[in-house]
Amino acid sequence: MMIINFYVLLGGGAGLADHDNYHEFCRLVGRFKVNYQLSELVNMEGYSSWISLVTEFTLKSLQSWQWASSGVYYLLGLWSRLVTSVPYLKGNSPNLLNEFVPKIIEQFISSKFDSIQAGLSDDLSEDPLDNVELLQDQLECIPYLCRFQYESCSTFIMQITDPILQMYMEAVNLPALADNSELVIIEAKLAWVAHIIAAILKTRQLVGLSADSHEIQDAELSARVLRLINVIDSGLHSQRYGEVPKQRLDRAVLIFFQYFRKSYIGDQAMHSSKQLYARLSELLGLHDHLLILNVIVGKIATNLKCYAESEEVINQTLGLFSEMATGFMTGKLLLKLDTVQYIISHHNNGFAPKVFVSLESTPDAIFRTDSVKYALIGLMRDLRGIAMATNSRRTYGFLFDWLYPTHMPLLLKAITHWTDTPEVTTPLLKFMAEFVLNKSQRLTFDSSSPNGILLFREVSKLTVAYGSRILSLPNCADLYTFKYKGIWILLSVLARALAGNYVNFGVFELYGDRALSDALDTVLKLLISIPLVDILAYRKLTAAYFAFLEVLLNSHIAFVLNLDTSTFRHIVGSLESGLRGVDTNILSQCASAVDNLATFYFNNITVGESPTTPAALNLARHVADCPGVFPEILKTLFEIVLFEDCGNQWSLSRPMLSLILISEEMFTNLRAQILASQPVDQQPRLSLCFDHLMADITQSLETKNRDKFTQNLTKFRNDFRSR
């Protein structure tokens, strides 16, 4: 019955002249295969007429590309699902797909060429060649249809590509054209061909679509794109790097390289793809993957040299190069190329060393010029990129030995002279933040090495130089860009250095070295200079501020406790404000910082006979002068757990137990306040909840006791909130 209804609609076309009706009907047709298996369809009466009408409807839709493009996606989806079901089809009933699928592929490609010829894209608002997502949508189903009847489809693609490619090759020797409209059309057609071939190669990686017989066709199609590369940067074409159609074509070639590399480059791929390389050897003399890889590297080098003004091409080129360099197999293969070996062997003549020498020899009197400014910006960005790529102890060691001690004075000189210029200080500080980050344990020095201490000394110098100068500068209208941005990056630098676990900070105090003290003093002055409302107003500043406080109270709590009471109150009060925020990460950081503080109080004051260390004495004095500090924080924590959606209850449970154990009286008073705020009839039940909260909890902050409290807190929250 369903087949008959579709037959009537497709045959009569009633109402399909309305665009909305047409679009919804395409969606309905596209869903047809979801509800019926192909084996069911082919055995239904009228299947042959139905599939013929669907074919005719699809072809007409493709021909009407200006009007019907939005619905074609659903129709192609139907055809894709039909052909992928053929291997599972049983019985002898003809499915007729072998006859109709090549026609659809031919019409799809023809419609793309027609749209180019008309000077329009299928989507009137945006050219698919400029939109990766739109392009992927349009090409998602095409590879499956092509590979279903690959020999005939690939033959058609080659037949329409060869004349266009020949015209493009002949255009190499032409003089600059006043009217290049014909060349623009050729480039657009070749871009579509390259994208279609790339999409076909992409599907080779999928199970069931990598038959050996397809390798010959893959080679034939790939040869067309590789032949294009021989002329794409020659003659007239080498004068068109600023033209958008040329850029689209080069981006399409990069996409082709990306999927060819994934499918056919690598030792395993090489051994399993002998037919492809044998055919490429016959066509182009490219008999193995190293030769192909050399072509790719050559194109990457050309793009980087010639496309300085095109951010899209540069980004895509660097993305491809990054994939190749970081890939396990392609990374090894790159080292076998003479081109890459040449680059490596001549790296000492590169940009960074020359810039270092030039800047280091620049007198102070002319260090504030634009040429120095832009050189510093470029150098710091490059160094940050290099530092981000050093993911092992070995590679980081190379970078460290190169920079220290020879080039580190330049960073101090730059931050000193350009403190008032965020364009310079921001990339410099971001490089330093990356340089001190101990990711993957890359900053692991030998036990006898002083490098960790030496690195922190440089951090301290930079912190003091920037912090002391930025404090003395007057505020301006754009306070975030001018001051706060640099401060939050500096906080990240110091937090990463303090938490990196590669510096024995006790050495500084032991030998009277003020590197640590000066850095912390400077940063503290910066923090105090910023109103708390401003800290909470800027997201990145907020994150850096509380991340720093967490590290400070974890590793250097004595520094905080030795501050005056008003500063101590300011810092602890800001932690309470952080707890009231909505950011889960910040809430966890504040909870950790509070737990460190409360744990120190418990271990050194609550369970001890009397505080003996200077830090413990100072904390006791601070709490005596500010008796409401701990009760307010504990109240805030209970309010979050009981009355808000709490996604990190484990983190909050840690400081809650520490604060409860500090003073039984504080907990008793808070319990009374919370119960008094609840309805009278609920108070007995809620009082029992509080009793259960402390069940089996001992006067200890050992892990076992903490975990038990966390379990009790979960039950307490659920029981308290139930009515």
Word description of this protein:
This protein has 723 residues and is mainly α. It is built from 39 helices and no strands. The longest helix is centred in the last third of the chain and has 23 residues. The two termini are 55 Å apart.
Produce a short descriptive summary.
One of its GO terms (molecular function) is nuclear export signal receptor activity. Keywords: Cytoplasm, Nucleus, Protein transport, Signal, Transport. The chain is an all-alpha fold and 723 residues long.
**Amino-to-carboxy terminus distance:** 55 Å
Strand content: under 5%
* Subunit arrangement of the protein: single chain
Q: How would a crystallographer describe the biggest sheet?
A: none
- DSSP E strands, number: 0
Q: Please mark out the parts with pLDDT under 50 across 5 or more consecutive residues, or reply none.
A: 120-125
Structural class: mainly alpha
Helix tally equals 39
Overall average pLDDT? 87
Q: For the CA atoms, what is the radius of gyration?
A: 34 Å
Total individual domains = 3
Estimate the global geometry from the Cα principal axes: globular
Percentage of residues in helical conformation: over 70%
